[in-house]
Each structure stands twice: as structure tokens, then as C-alpha cells.
Amino acid sequence: MSSQIQNNAQLTQLSNTPSLRDLFTQFFIIGAVSFGGGIIAYERILLVEKRKWLSADEFMAYLAISQTMPGLNSVNLAVLAGDHLRGWQGAVIATLGLIFPGSLLVLGFGMIYASAADHPSINPILTGIAAAATGLLAAVTYKIGDTHWRHVKSLAVIICTFILMSIFKLALPYVILIMAPISIYLYRPGQTQ
Amino acid sequence: MSLLIHLSWTFALLSVLAVGGGTAVLPEMQTILAHQFGIDHTQFVHIYSIGQLAPGPNMLMVLVIGYQIAGLIGVGVVLLSFFLPSSLMCFYMGRIWNRFGESPWRRSIQNALEPISIGLMSSGVYAVAKASVVSGITLALALVTLYLILRTKINPVLVILGSGGLGALLMFFLN
After folding, report:
1. Which of A187, B11, B87, B132 is the most buried (most CB within 10 A)?
2. Contact B22/A77 with Cβ under 8 angstroms?
3. Would you call A193 helix, strand, or coil by DSSP?
4. Burial level of A21, CB count in 10 A (0-12/13-18/19+)?
5. Which pLDDT tens digits describe chain A residue by residue (193 residues)?
6. pTM score, two decimals?
7. Contact B37, B77 (CB under 8 A)
8. Beta-carbon neighbour count of residue A128 at 10 Å?
9. Residue B90 with chain A: CB contacts under 8 Å
10. Which residues on adjacent β-strands are paired with residue A70?
């Protein structure tokens, strides 16, 4: 309740507070045009550059929370930015706007796939697309890994996680239960990168 | 009914475990779907590819999985259970964070979780690759795509559609 009051106080201070409809429209546009990933980049352009709804610092802080918390980073960012701008209603509206266009399209494709899965031409096309999608996923993983690939400590954690998950085939909760304490110990405050 | 509850529980769990983004839970999702819902690896990779072609978060492909398992009701169940738990956690975390601001432990935990999520993403690449790289042609397509995405500015969707078309043609003529 106190945070509600705080938010309302914030609302009256900000001159560039969007209406819920504007918030929905802007996130809807991102959800509709962000083919091939890079949604975070689109969100940054909207929030920081185009509408100046967040400062660059606020954006980085929210991005960090988005990446640390479970869930899709782009969706988490919409939740946080929406809450920042219009409270819980803003969070709901921004998230719905972001996932609405893609949901409709992916569902359309999925229905076609479900009804045409036996068609002889579908299999080679999807096999080709799947191979390419693997290349894309590898590229995205490499990019997100960024400098971690060059730091011995990071690389050791990456490799151990991979081995537990893919070679020993442990269930994900166990992998996290094993790796998180080790990694947090390695990165405890006061340690160098 | 029990199928829907099972579906909802499965995706809620995956939602909460998706630290570092959806790709981190790809291998786990693939295993669970194969063992408990009869979605085989080929189907999974096909659905994953479909997700890459739509705009927005590419993990929206979970909706297609819901559709395959339980039709439109399945879509609703998966949508709610995959997006609601993690979004709620992030929502409250954001409010707590705003109250506490920067602390050395928060920074440490974030730094510690990053390489784990990259390791999990690598496992995701491996899981998808095992099911999709099945021949010389598919290996070449994957490598060419990897190169094009890393080294050029071509829109990823065009690269994927191009590779898909080219691959289909090659496989059609070689078979």
C-alpha cells in the first residue's frame, strides 16, 4: 500500500507519464516488429531514447534485474518499466502489448504446422529452418556470453554447468543447486572479476 | 483435466527455473515434453523453429506446444503458467530493489548467475543441435547461419528463411 502511494506521488511528479493506452501501443509495436530477436534493443530505444520514460541508469538497473530473475528478459523488462511508469496496471499492460502480436502469429504458424505436419514438403523445409535456427541460437548464446568466454572463472562455471546438464543429464533444479553456491562463492563481494 | 493441471505445473516450474532467459530451460523443456507429453525431439525442434519466425520473444513457441498438447485451452494454460510466475517474481523483485538500491551482494549474485545461465544456454544449443543437425547439409546450414549472424547485419529472419529454403531444395534434389 505504501508503495502504491509512493508510485502515485511519483506519477504526479513526472511530466512524461504515458497513458495506459500509449504504453500498450508502444510495447505492441515492439512486439510486432522485433523479428529475429533484439527486443531488448528495441525496448531501450523506446524507453530511453524515443520517449525518455527511463534514464539510461534506470534502464541498466532494470535490465540487470530482468536478467537475474527467472523469465524472459524482454518480458521482465516490460514488467519493470510498466510498473515504474504506471504501477501494476502498467506492468500488466506493457507485458500484454509486448507478447500479443507474436502470440497471434506464432499460434497461426503452429496451427498450420499442426494441420500440415504430414505434408511431404513441410519436413525438409522445417529441417532446413531448424538447422539455421540452431546456428542463430549458437550465435545469440555466443553474443550474450560476451566477455565471459575469455575469463577463466566464468568459463569454468560455464563448462561445469554444461557438463552437469548435458553430459550427466541432471535435472535443472539440481544443476542450479550445485552450481549457484559454488559460483556465488567464486564471485563473492571483494573478489576481482 | 489432470492433463491441463500437469501442463500448467510443468510450465510454471519451467518459468521459475528460466534464470537467464527462456533458452536456459530449453534442454529441460525438451526432456520433460518428450518423456511426459509425447512431443518428440523432431517436433520440438520444428516448433522451436516456428518460434524463431514470429516477432516478439521467441519463447512464445511454448504456445504452439500448448496447442499441440491440449488445443486452444492448452494455449491459455501455457500462456498463464509460463509467463505469470516469473513476471510476478520480477515485479516484486523490482519493488524490493527500488527500496534497497545497489548492494555489493546483489552485484555478486548477479555476476555469479550470469556464467551459469550462459552454461545453460550452451546446453540449449547442444540439445537443439542434437535434434536438428542430422546430416552434412544441416551442419553446413547451421554453420553458415552462425557465421552470417555474427559477421553481418542481415536480418536473422531472412537468414533463417533463406537457409530453410536452400536446405529444402538441396535435400529435395539429393534425395
Report:
1. B132
2. no
3. coil
4. exposed
5. 445 555 554 544 455 789 999 999 999 999 998 876 668 878 988 998 889 999 888 887 788 788 778 899 899 999 999 999 999 999 999 999 999 999 999 999 999 988 876 777 777 888 888 888 888 889 878 887 888 899 999 999 999 999 999 999 888 888 989 999 999 999 998 876 5
6. 0.79
7. no
8. 27
9. 65-66, 69-71, 76, 79-80
10. B19
Helices B41-53 and B62-100 cross at an angle (nearest 10°) of: 60
Residue where the block lists cell 541498466: A60
Cβ distance B57 to A162 less than 8 Å, yes or no, reads no
The identity of residue A156, as a single letter, is: A
- The C-alpha atoms of residue A61 and residue A85 are separated, in whole angstroms, by 15
CA distance, residue B7 to nearest chain A CA (Å): 17
Largest CA distance in chain B: 63
- The reply to whether B152 touches chain A by the CB within 8 Å rule is no
A114 is written with which cell numbers?
499442426
